[in-house]
Design brief:
The protein is α+β, with helices and mostly antiparallel strands.
């Protein structure tokens, strides 16, 4: 997608006024697909040059039949397309991804005839093709056209693909399954042979990607680039539910397609005032796709949804996203944040330059906006130029039922996880003939890695670049020089204070004999030739310091010896001062009973257990303000700061956790409202329980704190040895 159109599209073949025969048009289309890279093998190319596409759409003009675009063939009563012949570029892409060979048995889900005929050309007389569609009118049409064109060996079945008859599956399974309808789930793993291919337009939070998978045991693993696409929706048992909710009186809709829908009625007041805008400092060209960012945010942000606006709503507070590409948003209680773009220039190609910004609505919208902006910046630093993410699909098991967290999508038949590779950064260790190192003082006022530190020159790879290409480009951009003898030196890995991997940089060594004042610095503050002993008095980037030490202990590597680069590890310094997470808990008593909520069964913390209304305080927030906010967001109850009293402090260290928690328990003399479930992905019900008969299970530390409060004990230490 792009900031302008909001969707990745392929241009249709320009119409021609020439009266050309079908063979000429067919070959012209194949030439176009070959030149664009969508045809990559001789077998698929030959199929496109052979199968008469016009015979499967006799109702359209001949030139349109060979345009590189979809052709609708059936509509619903309200005018939506329910069946079509897919765009040739996408059919070619999916057929290449399916790796079909002569003799293969192939299943096509979603019929039309033309694609099945292409597959029949690929499998040959020794293979078989089965095409299935739920609509009898579609299969009747498909059967007729396949027979007319000589492809009557294709078996056409009218059935719900999710309930395909067992007799339709060949012994041992299909070698390939190609899905040509927009599918929310992939229930066909068991129909594939080991090593078989499944290619499908998979729907994740309304983003649809054509993905090629290989079966390995009971698991599907992607191994090719993901392609944004669009298909007619799946019907029958596999039809998807957008789980759309409407904010009352606003004409604003939120779709929680791959998550638990959050309440939206309480959001209406958030749009009474214009939004605040948080800049991300991440930019993009007007014609540059950013589909991977959308997919990344969908998996990274709890409460993620897609935002759309009725054209006739007339709401001037919100800037509507394109109608065919709903915006990315997150809900946080009574507030909402939404990703948008803002034009900041014309760009090098005249197509515009845009910055990602986050619009915040509601009193706590700034916190939600900061959360979303942080994830946009994380994607920029770590994933934007990295290889394609890896998608894994597995059947649900007892273990996967507990699997929650970032980039995990739970479906009806499968659990889908997405692994995002990390961008390798690059750096240049430049030395002169006198034992000096060229260091670069980074700006202290920009959202960059290690602001205000002395570091090596360099930067991240960009999309499609190798590391050795990236370091040449970075040096040209930063100092306008080419270093002829650059050689890979070490791999620098940065770990966090607990030893978890954070980032990777490939460091190159090169020589440069030129005074610093003669080098034009285009980025940063200052260049300096420095001896190793002088760095002790400088604010050094820890990774740069570690690389300099490594250079002192080993000679410059021989690029011809073929040995792997040595790895230098640097760990982020741990703060020896204790840091605690602060939680606020509300002890609400009525008629001798306490209000407890049952946590969601898929909650990462205490699933299905009973717990008080509670939450963690956010940045620059007093604990008592946190208590008021969390109570409103979770239960809808209104409480006043003047009515709150601190009744207990629990000093908690969870088993295996390096970070203690200070749990503060407040009570209130009065409140307004009745408790309601406003965050159903976290809490499924509220109930009043006698203090002497708490439900089982109740969170251990909650039970301990309530007992201490009953005895008038102000402080409890729990979990410490």
């Amino acid at each position: 997608m792009t900031p302008l159109s909001g969707r990745h599209t392929m241009s249709a073949t320009p119409p021609t006024t020439e009266q050309l025969d079908p063979s000429t048009l067919r070959n012209r289309l194949a030439d176009q697909l070959l030149m664009s890279g969508h045809l990559r093998t001789a077998a698929v190319e030959a199929a496109f040059r052979t199968v008469p596409r016009h015979a499967f759409v006799p109702e359209v003009p001949m030139a349109d039949a060979y345009a590189n675009d979809i052709i609708p063939t059936r509509h619903t009563a309200d005018g939506r397309v329910s069946s079509s012949i897919s765009a040739p570029w996408l059919q070619a892409h999916m057929l290449e991804a399916a790796h079909i060979r002569a003799g293969h048995h192939v299943l096509e889900i979603g019929s039309g005839g033309f694609n099945a005929a292409l597959v029949a050309e690929l499998v040959g007389p020794s293979g078989s093709v089965t095409t299935v569609d739920i609509d009898a009118a579609v299969t009747e049409r498909t059967t007729r056209f396949l027979t007319d064109t000589g492809y009557d060996r294709v078996r056409v079945i009218t059935a719900d693909a999710e309930r395909l008859p067992a007799a339709a599956v060949p012994d041992g399974g299909f070698d390939a399954v190609i899905v040509t309808v927009d599918t929310w789930d992939l229930p066909w793993i068991h129909m594939l042979v080991e090593g078989g291919r499944l290619v499908a337009p998979l729907r994740l939070h309304q983003y649809v990607w054509s993905i090629g998978f290989t079966r390995q045991g009971a698991v599907l693993t992607s191994d090719e680039p993901l392609t944004v696409c669009g298909f007619v929706p799946m019907q029958g048992a596999g039809a998807w539910n957008s789980q759309r909710r409407t904010i009352p009186g606003r004409g604003i809709h939120l779709a929680f397609e791959d998550g638990t829908p959050r309440p939206v009625d309480q959001l209406a007041p958030a749009f009474d005032t214009p939004p605040t805008t948080l800049r991300t400092h991440v930019t993009i060209g007007g014609q540059e796709p950013f589909d991977s960012l959308a997919l990344y945010l969908a998996g990274a942000l709890p409460g993620f949804c897609r935002l759309s606006v009725d054209p006739e709503s007339g709401d001037s507070v919100i800037s509507p996203p394109p109608p065919h590409w709903p915006g990315a948003a997150i809900v946080r209680g009574t507030s909402l944040a939404r990703l948008a773009t803002e034009r900041i220039g014309d760009g090098d190609d005249g197509g515009g330059r845009y910055e990602f910004v986050v619009h915040a609505y509601g009193a706590a919208g700034g916190f939600a906006a900061a959360e979303m902006a942080e994830q946009v910046q994380h994607w920029q630093r770590n994933h934007r130029a990295a290889p394609c993410p890896r998608v894994t699909v597995r059947p649900p098991t007892a273990a996967s039922n507990e699997e929650v967290g970032p980039h995990v999508f739970r479906k009806k038949h499968t659990v889908i996880t997405i692994d995002w590779p990390v961008i390798p950064g690059t750096a240049a260790l430049l030395t002169d003939d006198h034992g000096h190192y060229l260091l670069h003082l980074r700006s202290a006022n920009k959202p960059i890695w290690r602001p205000g530190h002395w570091a090596l020159l360099g930067g991240n790879t960009e999309k499609g670049e190798r590391c050795d290409e990236a370091i040449v480009r970075e040096l040209d951009e930063e100092i306008g020089l080419t270093i002829p003898d650059l050689t890979a030196f070490v791999t620098l890995d940065t770990l966090d204070a607990h030893g978890a991997f954070m980032s990777r940089v490939r460091v190159y060594h090169g020589t440069l004999n030129r005074p610093a004042h003669e080098i034009e610095l285009c980025e940063g503050i200052q260049l300096r030739w420095t001896r190793l002993e002088e760095t002790a008095e400088m604010t050094m980037d820890p990774g740069a310091a570690a690389v300099l030490q490594a250079h002192q202990t080993r000679p410059r590597p021989d690029p011809a010896d073929g040995t792997p680069l040595p790895t230098v590890q640097v760990r982020e310094p741990g703060d020896q001062r204790s840091r605690s997470i602060v939680g606020a808990h509300l002890v609400l008593i009525r008629d001798g009973k306490v209000l407890l909520g049952r946590r969601h069964a898929s909650s990462a913390f205490a699933p299905s257990a009973w717990h008080l209304p509670a939450g963690h305080r956010e940045a620059n927030e007093a604990a008592i303000a946190c208590m008021i906010r969390e109570t409103k967001e979770e239960t809808g109850l209104a409480i006043d700061e003047a009515d709150l009293s601190l009744v207990h402090t629990l000093d908690l260290l969870d088993p295996g956790s390096p970070t203690p928690r200070i749990q503060l328990f407040f009570t209130t003399s009065r409140w307004s409202g009745e408790p309601a479930v406003l965050e159903p992905d976290r809490c499924t019900e509220w109930a009043w329980w006698p203090l002497t008969a708490l439900p089982d299970p109740t969170v251990d530390y909650t039970r301990t704190a309530l007992a201490a409060i009953s005895h008038g004990t102000p402080y409890t230490a729990m979990g410490w040895t």
